[in-house]
Design brief:
The complex is a heterodimer of chains A (about 270) and B (about 325).
Chain A lengths: L1 H19 L1 H27 L4 E2 L2 E2 L3 H19 L5 H8 L2 H6 L4 H30 L8 H28 L2 H16 L11 H9 L1 H15 L7 H32 L2
Antiparallel strand pairs in A: 1-2
Helix pairs in contact in A: 1-6, 2-3, 2-6, 3-6, 3-7, 3-8, 3-10, 4-7, 6-7, 7-8, 7-10, 7-11, 10-11
Chain B lengths: L1 E13 L8 H8 L3 E13 L3 E6 L5 H8 L7 E6 L2 E3 L3 H4 L3 E4 L11 H12 L3 H10 L15 H13 L5 E5 L7 H14 L4 E5 L3 H7 L2 E6 L2 E6 L1 H5 L6 E7 L4 H9 L3 E6 L5 E6 L5 H11 L2 E7 L3 H10 L1
Helix pairs in contact in B: 4-5, 4-6, 5-6
The chains are: A mainly alpha (about 270), B alpha/beta (about 325).
């Protein structure tokens, strides 16, 4: 009960904190939009210059390909970026002392940060989607509900990773900086804005097994090919298992680091 | 029964000043060289008592406060707060304690009021209490500003409001009047004094007048060790063999201070701020006559009066020992 009430209070506080960062809201929306528009222009130029198909990408499907990738990526990026540095920021601003002195559930604090990040991503994604609809036409072939499920599972999977990095970052601050680099590397290797066929075979094998690639490909299967639940069940199970494992790791890392933090002070 | 029992506490921190080279550097990363920041510290705080922690910078006051608040673990020794062992049983008492800590902040991305309301919900306190505290600490009109826009004093006032939210049985106040203007500082001291009826208070401060006014008992820490414990009155007895004068001169120069300091009867000379007066502590009472002769020989004195020792005199005396 304590966990639930603290979680609700802290989630509201976290959403309010996000609202304070008006520049970040603008960056979240226009940054994503700028990437999307750049790649829309590039791929548009490629296909109008006579190229027929590159790795399954053609003039008929490249818009939905880019839209799905660029809408799902922020859900992953926020976990590996801002969420992963949540504790470091608290530590840097010395705002965690009073929280840890209070009777609030400590894991609720971390979980609230994750859920607030999801709210943030959902709100910005809706705005981005509305803005995209002004610029381009595309058809989403599959079920929107199923796409929502993939979106949620992707977020849960990576929020576990983000929370673990946040906890480790509270112990060793450099870890949070590494997570930003990891986020950029994963964006490069997961085919967010281009098909994996642009990579040499040896790199592509590695790219295919990345959970980020799996999540993006699953959403694309729904949006581009109209895949049904039964067709994407293995990927759904993969993401669900990954969510459970990553959140469990975050929880145990939190408990472990909490004990360590007691030695050096919170 | 004691509200706080601190028994033989020892605490080590990694020694950040130790910067070895070569292989020793790697060894220091794996197993950092440590330095003792608290050395065998023991004391008890009784119910309804204001207990002062005094000490120079780096004496270990904040570390000790954090340990009592369950924010840090001791390497050796035991701490019991409201009958519960810390930090193991912190969960059982954390709704009954609260405090302000030096350099700790509110959430800067939230307004002052949002901060207080969030903590009010965590402590299970209603909105009216928040409004009451905003009024009391003179924060009306500031409550809807973001916390990063506050002055140091305003941050402290919001932190104090947070500390009083849950009517704690035990209050940790780490330098609570730092950055406050004199009017608010007096108000806060009066609040702390009144609070004594309901709470036991641990107060850390560099303001000796404040400690003298507020504390029932005091421990003085130096380099992690307790060097003296007692009531302000009993601590002042430490200087009972000495004689203290406040002397007003025509004009004070650094040469005058140097010359007085060189006198064999003089223990210490301090300039009293914004005056032409010096506070002169003699080593022994029977030196008074010799000192007076010496003093009047070359200096034009406006006024001279014998004064009682203050806690600050005691503190400086103990630190110099």
């Amino acid at each position: 009960m304590r966990f639930v009430s603290d979680f609700l209070v802290l989630t509201i506080a976290e959403v309010r904190k996000y609202y304070r960062w008006k520049e970040r809201i603008i960056w979240d929306i226009f940054g994503t939009l700028a990437f999307l528009l750049s790649f829309l222009l590039v791929w548009g130029a490629v296909f109008s210059s006579g190229s027929v198909e590159i790795g399954g990408l053609n003039k008929d499907n490249y818009v939905i390909f880019l839209v799905t990738g660029s809408l799902l990526w922020p859900a992953i990026g926020i976990c590996l970026g801002p969420l992963s540095s949540a504790f470091v920021r608290e530590k840097y601003h010395r705002s965690s002392t009073y929280f840890f002195l209070s009777p609030a559930s400590r894991f609720a604090f971390l979980f609230a940060k994750a859920v607030a990040s999801m709210v943030e991503v959902l709100l910005t994604s809706i705005v981005i989607l509305i803005l995209i609809l002004f610029f381009c036409e595309f058809t989403f072939k599959g079920s929107l509900l199923l796409a929502g499920l993939v979106f949620l599972l992707t977020f849960l999977s990576f929020s576990g990773v983000g929370m673990t990095l946040a906890v480790l970052g509270a112990w060793r601050e450099g870890i949070s900086e590494v997570s930003y680099i990891l986020s950029e590397v994963l964006m490069l290797l997961s085919g967010v804005f281009y098909p994996l066929e642009v990579f040499p075979e040896s790199v592509r094998v590695f790219c295919e097994v990345l959970p980020t690639t799996q999540a993006i490909n699953t959403l694309r299967a729904i949006g581009m090919e109209g895949a049904t639940l039964s067709q994407i069940m293995p990927q759904i199970i993969y993401l669900a298992v990954f969510s459970i494992i990553s959140i469990s790791i975050a929880y145990f890392a939190f408990r472990h680091i909490e004990k360590k933090a007691m030695l050096i002070g919170i | 029964m004691s509200e706080i029992i601190v028994k033989n506490i020892v605490k080590y921190y990694p020694d950040k000043e130790y910067k070895p080279k070569g292989f020793k550097r790697i060894k220091n990363i794996v197993s950092p060289k440590k330095k003792k920041v608290l050395d065998n510290v023991s004391f008890e705080v009784k119910k309804g008592e204001i207990f002062g922690l005094l000490g120079s910078n780096g004496a270990g006051k904040t570390t000790l406060m954090k340990m009592m608040g369950g924010l840090m673990e001791a390497d050796e020794g035991e701490i019991f707060i409201l009958g519960e062992k810390m930090p193991e049983n912190k969960k059982k008492i954390e709704g009954r304690i609260n405090g302000v800590f030096a350099r700790a902040n509110m959430w800067w991305e939230l307004t002052g009021k949002q901060n207080l309301l969030t903590y009010a919900k965590i402590y299970g306190v209603n909105k009216e209490k928040v409004n009451e505290l905003i009024d009391f600490f003179g924060l009306k009109g500031k409550e809807n500003l973001y916390s990063d826009l506050f002055s140091t004093g305003e941050v402290m006032r919001f932190c104090l409001a947070k500390a009083f939210l849950n009517d704690p049985e035990l209050l940790f106040l780490d330098e609570p009047t730092i950055g406050l203007d004199p009017v608010v500082a007096i108000k806060v001291r009066e609040l702390i004094k009144k609070r004594k009826k309901k709470s036991s208070i641990v107060l850390s401060t560099h303001n000796m007048e404040e400690a003298d006014f507020l504390c029932d008992r005091i421990v003085i820490l130096n380099k992690g060790k307790i060097i003296k414990t007692g009531t302000p009155k009993s601590l002042k007895k430490e200087l009972e063999k000495k004689e203290i004068f406040e002397v007003e001169f025509d004009k004070i120069s650094s040469k005058l201070i140097d010359n007085l300091n060189k006198l064999k009867y003089v223990d210490r000379v301090n300039l009293i701020e914004d005056t032409q007066s010096l506070r002169i502590i003699l080593k022994e009472k029977n030196h008074v006559n010799h000192f007076m002769k010496e003093l009047q020989r070359e200096n034009k004195i406006q006024n001279i009066q014998k004064v009682s020792p203050t806690l600050e005199d005691v503190f400086i005396h103990l630190m110099r020992k």
